[in-house]
């Protein structure tokens, strides 16, 4: 799904769907860009995306001057995934089985993913009780870094957020103690993608509008009870979210 964020950035209206391409690969996105005119590609200033390296590769090859941005949702989601993996590993190492009702770490699995400031006092007390246990130190450290990533995005001034995020990425990348496998992996990934992550603080561009359109198209599929013909689905999606409805109604 390829979305034009220009109307939203310019304050002229919501983002609009440009096209839909089958497949999730560098070739799928790259081939779509390749058949656009050079003039079109030269006008692309920013490309927002998730952490998939294939899209980054295609953007670098076809619109090399455009600034790539990895938006906050996917950065936080990446960190949350590593935190969850750490919790699962420690759960198995300490209790010898997957999480079950009544297990300490299993009981706080959702609370851990909540922003620190939004946790209720009762849940915060339970969270602190579990994470301060000596056998859960790896989870506690990983959770703290996860919360730091969220806090960087919560800074009032983008400049402060960017500085805080860079220091955090550098701290994780420079080396973590043994036993923090998931955090070490996260550090390498964030360092590799640091330019795209930090670009958010300069541009403010995100995949939020893309996710919004994706939700609207999911609703469209539900109303239609599914589509058998891909071309029909793409056409209907463009009418629904591509800014064409007004033009068609005017005919």
From TrEMBL:
Residues in the signal sequence: none
Matching Pfam families: DDE_Tnp_ISL3
Domain Transposase IS204/IS1001/IS1096/IS1165 DDE: 14-236
InterPro entries assigned: Transpos_ISL3, Transposase_DDE
This protein's name: Transposase for insertion sequence element
Transmembrane segments annotated in the record for this chain: none
């Amino acid at each position: 799904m390829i979305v034009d964020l220009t109307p939203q950035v310019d304050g002229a209206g919501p983002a609009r769907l440009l096209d839909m391409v089958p497949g999730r690969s560098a070739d799928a996105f790259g081939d779509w860009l390749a058949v656009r005119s050079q003039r079109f590609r030269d006008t692309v200033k920013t490309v927002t995306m998730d952490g998939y390296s294939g899209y980054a590769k295609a953007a670098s090859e076809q619109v090399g001057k455009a600034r790539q941005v990895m938006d906050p949702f996917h950065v936080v989601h990446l960190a949350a995934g590593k935190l969850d993996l750490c919790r699962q590993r420690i759960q198995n190492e300490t209790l010898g089985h997957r999480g079950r009702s009544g297990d300490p770490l299993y009981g706080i699995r959702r609370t851990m993913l909540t922003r620190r400031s939004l946790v209720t006092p009762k849940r915060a007390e339970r969270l602190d009780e579990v994470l301060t246990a000596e056998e859960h130190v790896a989870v506690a450290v990983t959770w703290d870094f996860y919360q730091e990533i969220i806090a960087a995005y919560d800074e009032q001034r983008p400049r402060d957020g960017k500085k805080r995020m860079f220091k955090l990425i550098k701290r994780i990348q420079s080396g973590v103690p043994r036993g923090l496998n998931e955090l070490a992996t996260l550090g390498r990934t964030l360092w590799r993608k640091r330019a795209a992550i930090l670009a958010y603080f300069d541009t403010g561009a995100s995949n939020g509008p893309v996710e919004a359109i994706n939700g609207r198209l999911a609703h469209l599929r539900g109303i239609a009870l599914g589509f058998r013909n891909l071309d029909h689905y793409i056409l209907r999606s463009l009418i629904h979210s591509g800014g064409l409805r007004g033009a068609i109604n005017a005919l």
